[in-house]
Amino acid sequence: MREGVEASDAENLAFVVVNGIKGGFEPCTDKLYHRRKAMLHEAKNGLIVSLAASDWAECKQPNGKSAAVSKLSLMRELMYGDEFSIGDSKIPVLRQSTIAKFRDFAENVRWEIAGTMFATINLPRNNNHYVIDAGRNSEFEDRLVANREWLNRVFTYATRRKMDAIVLFCDGNPLAVPRAGTVQRDGYAETRKQIKALAAKFTGKVLIIHSQSGSDTPASTIHWRGNLGDLDTGTGWTKLTVHQSGPGLFSLSTPATQTSGGSR
Fold first, then answer.
1. Could you tell me if 107 and 76 are in contact, meaning their C-beta atoms sit under 8 angstroms apart?
2. Secondary structure class of 113 (helix, strand, coil)
3. How many Å separate Cα 180 from the centre of its chain?
4. CA 227 – CA 245 distance, rounded (Å)
């Protein structure tokens, strides 16, 4: 990951969004999380962490039981301290946690630059961390409520400001419908329906940037369905340029120094 941060430091960027701070092959130890926090704070560009499943949802205790809730709490404590991005360039952001009812959801943030609304939303790629278990799936259900409110707020604000586009950063792809028989319950069903309904009423473009494939080869094409598009960055680096004029609002390029590590 250090090489990836250094690669982005070499370019003068408006901001960098990092999809997750660790790979699935790395241990979920507190020591690793603290090391990554210190390293990310050395970034030259403004940097925002978008949570990945490998950061929390896929973590296990030594006995094999899930450690997801405790690691999610740790990530929220370490990576989302105030109303600014991390790194040398401080970008003002607004967190969902400023709303009393959703004070735990500091990872959902939004910011705006030149007529475009950018936002993160916690949607891990392991079927949105829907857990088949006896009783209430409390983590999933609580986050589902928070994410629904967050999306409504993001679209309402962007509409009120007459913005050209909304760009959402997440780990899983909420627009993808799972193949029949692969999951017992589609963890993205409600979010997919909501995004499509909100996008249909929004006059600008809506772009979902995710890393569902986990591929180390970043995608080179945005797949559009009307005004709603998705881009799979995998674990590679992709540079997205937002144009203020011309026929195309977005263009993609690969940074000169291409490294894997989950940043966009």
1. yes
2. strand
3. 26
4. 17
- Please name the residues in contact with 57: beta carbons below 8 A apart, sequence gap of 6 or more: 68, 72, 124, 126, 129
- Quick one: tokens of 178? 């799972």
The CA-CA-CA angle for residues 121, 37, 69, to 5°, reads 50
Structural element, H or E, at residue 203? none
Name 96's Cβ contacts closer than 8 Å, sequence gap at least 6: 102, 105, 106, 108, 109, 146, 149, 150, 153
- Per residue in 112-151, pLDDT (tens digit) is 998 999 999 999 999 999 998 766 689 999 999 999 999 9
Tokens, residue 106 = 């500091």
Please give the Cα distance from 232 to 170 (Å, whole number): 10
Q: Please, which residues bridge with residue 47 across strands? A: 16, 86
Give whole-number Cα distances, 37 to 29, 61, 65, 80, 108, in Å. Answer: 13, 21, 25, 10, 18
Six token digits for residue 41? 């704070």
- The two structure tokens encoding residue 199: 């996008």
Residue 239 pLDDT > 70, yes or no?
Answer: yes
Integer Cα distance of 238 and 210 in angstroms: 11
Give exposure, 233-254, as e/b (b: 16+ Cβ within 10 Å). bbbbbbbbebeeeeeebbeeee
**Measured CA distances, 117 to 19, 26, 122 (Å):** 18, 33, 17
The secondary structure of 205-237 as a DSSP string is: EEEEEE-TT--SS-----EEETTEEEEE-TTS-
Block residue for tokens 């950063």: 169
Residue 88's CB: how many other CB atoms inside 10 A?
13
The model carries a pTM of 0.92
